[in-house]
UniProtKB/TrEMBL annotation:
Pfam families: HGTP_anticodon (PF03129), tRNA-synt_His (PF13393). SUPFAM superfamilies: Class II aaRS ABD-related, Class II aaRS and biotin synthetases. This is Histidine--tRNA ligase. Its main location: cytoplasm. GO terms for biological process: histidyl-tRNA aminoacylation. Transmembrane segments: none annotated. The gene is hisS. Keywords: Aminoacyl-tRNA synthetase, ATP-binding, Cytoplasm, Ligase, Nucleotide-binding, Protein biosynthesis.
Amino acid sequence: MIKAPRGTRDLLPGEIEKWHYIEAVAREISAIYGYQEIRTPIFEHTELFLRGIGDTTDVVQKEMYTFEDRGGRSITLRPEGTAAVVRAYLEHHLQNQPQPVKLYYLGPMFRYDRPQAGRMRQFHQVGIEAFGSNDPSLDAEVVCYTWDFLSRLGLKGLRVEVNSVGCPECRPVFGRDLREFMNEHRESLCEYCRDRIERNPLRLLDCKEQRCQDLLKDAPGIHQYLCPECRGHFQKVRELLRVAGISFRVNERLVRGLDYYTQTAFEVSLEGMGAQSSVAGGGRYNNLVETCGGSPVPGIGVAIGLERVLIALEKLGVELPIKRPEYIFVATAGEDPSGELEKEAMSLLVKLRRAGYPAEKDFLSRSLKAQMKQAGRLGSRFVVILGTEEMKEGKVTLRDMERGSQINVTQQELFRFLENRKSGEAEL
């Protein structure tokens, strides 16, 4: 039997409703904050991610799904959403629209990683991107969006960590001193960090190897190297987060796993969730649009991992208020050698659905008793029973499964009852 590839999973009825609810909340919060939806291709030219994410990052070095198409072009399944949105921003000249341009996306991402809880090879993100402003209040807005989205879902114990990773003016000096410090411990570093020392020393801070993390405890911190502009920007971001009532902790080692971040970087995690506690992360990327071939345009965004959100909801015992359809079940009773009952059942089913009522019927020629059981399994509140005698009289039996009561009505009266029930004016 062929199974789903390792690191992927099927989302089945009974679970997919949770995804629909979370996605609906994301759309609602995005509308409140003024973000419009964008949908980009699932695969892009590999060069986009090499230039945008950075060729010394773990994502590019270890995790991308890259292949050649039949035309010999190098193609990569998107490992994250920001670079693709930047590409679309440039390709469709969104920089000519009134700024800031505020966009959100929902969809799958792909990374070749070791599958575990909350870390899949195909995973899903909600993300927002805002282009055209370097105002610290936009940084604060993105953090607030993340906080509000997660809080709206019922998650408690949110922990926000913020940092400034500087800019091309001040970061090189920090990189030089960090390189010198780590070179003294070169032999103790992992293979990747030995390479990072020369190519991109800031990536040393993102290494997950414990031996490298231990060495970094005594390494220089970036805050003493921040230029006046970056220091002032970070100060304003913190002030605005306090105004918004967002509690946070400054983490000088937080750099995120992508090269495009400048100034603000942040991460949101959940207390008591263990190794996979991080559910969202983002930051400012003021040079990414230029790196991808455009004129300098500041930007900032965040990505929220939906698998991790769902795991957190389950561990915390949060029940999502999912409203399931209240089906009307159309059943037939008695012998039907001429097929007239079946025709009438199909006709009524179509009428109900076209009038906007969720409706189902039997498709296995079961007995009335079995049909009633099926109606119960579907959670049907009402069953409309078509019998030979009722049909001769132009009526149906309407049964309330919850109350156990029933009445005989015409189809016109049936639809009048259903319409009145919408406003709570009718009960059997």
